[in-house]
Amino acid sequence: MNYKGSGSSSFDSVSCKFLRLSGPHMNSIFFRCFCLVCMVLILRALVLYPLSSILTFQQKPLDWVYGSSVSNSLPEIRKGKFLEVPQIVWGLNNQKIAFARACLTARMLNRTLLMPSLSASLFYKEVELLEPIAFEKIFQFDRFNTLCSGFVQLGRYSEISNKTGPLELRKGSGRRWTVERDLDQLTEFSQIPMSEYEVIRIVGKNPFLWHDHWPVKDYARIFECLVLVDEISNEATRVVSKIQETGNKVKSKLQTQQQSIGSMNSSGIHSPYIAVHMRIEKDWMIHCKNLEQRSNISQICSSKKEIMDRVAHITGLQRPTIVYLAVADSLLEDESVLDGWDEGLLPYEKKRLGVWDVYNRYPYLIKSAIDYEVCLRADIFVGNSFSTFSSLIVLERTQKLMRSGVTDSCGIDVSYFNLSETSCSDMTGSTGGNRGCEMCLCSGHTMKRTKGAAH
């Protein structure tokens, strides 16, 4: 029904009747003034009262506008309302991104995210072979809720009262399922009557493949709340200690040799190390070749030699130094990964370092989490800008720079780092002036420039 049209018709009818009854006096000044006052009062009633009710509705706590510019204006998370998502799959950092996207979806719906299952194994095609693993086996559940309190909330299935059955939200797919349609669907499910269901269950594709509606800073905030459980953190500490112990032995031996000829006086030994995410495994080479063909870019796949050349051109590097190679050994086909490095660069992978037993007792996901932490703690990190593993390490290291007050490093505004472009720049170096991304970060608040293309 068109209420505006109906109201206008009634008003015209009443006015005509009134004019017919008052015909003899309608030319008087008093009558004209009287009509004018009546019209003003009627218009005020029709216009101002509905406007007032609209303004009041907009101030209700459950009424908000979605978008990154007002992401911090969302109301406090409602109690007793939950969001359930499918099992999160693929690599460690794909899973972290998917988890953060699920958290932000729950935040948009003003709900608590039910603790999702992660995937301990790595299968891209055979989804039925994925080995589920509880979130709290990798990350600290209570610590997450403490650090992200008021922003997002993680809940347990035991908190559900089961008063109502779950409402299914089926994610669309295909080219026709646009970002706008996805946002409209989420908006619809945030409103009555859908919002009254205790549990909304999203069915369909993996959260990593959902459309994205949030700024990088929201993802970064969630990543900061992801703290590894003590068992995994302690294993990473064991690996870092072994790296530093090896570096100390090398430098101690060198110092002893130099002191014997009086060229160096005794001093404390500090053993910084470089961590290189050496993405040359067979699964990556297949993926990056396909990506190069689709993107018409020829500098995504880096060979072992290219990576070694770029590490060798890090400026201000003190040698000798340990180079820890973060590589998925089970997927590595090139066994010569330790050969051919520049003088003073001492490459170590898990077996040569003597920490294979630390990794070998765990499934893929935990191995990756240990390597992530070892790279995060490195004095210098070198990664591949097309890898989510490298990108999230750079993002987290950059966040630490920003928290410490550093906003500019090597002439680059560190606030430009994000999930897909990590300080990309055009660089011309001795290896040929290829276009690449600078992803080499120091803990000493400076980024070391490398010569060459993306690494």
From TrEMBL:
Gene3D superfamilies named among the record's database cross-references: 3.40.50.11350
GO MF annotations in UniProt: glycosyltransferase activity
Domain of life: Eukaryota
Keyword Repressor: no
Bilayer-spanning residue ranges: 29-51
Signal peptide (UniProt feature, chain positions): none
GO biological process, one term: fucose metabolic process
Family of the protein in this entry: Belongs to the glycosyltransferase GT106 family.
Protein name: O-fucosyltransferase family protein
Source organism of the structure: Aristolochia fimbriata
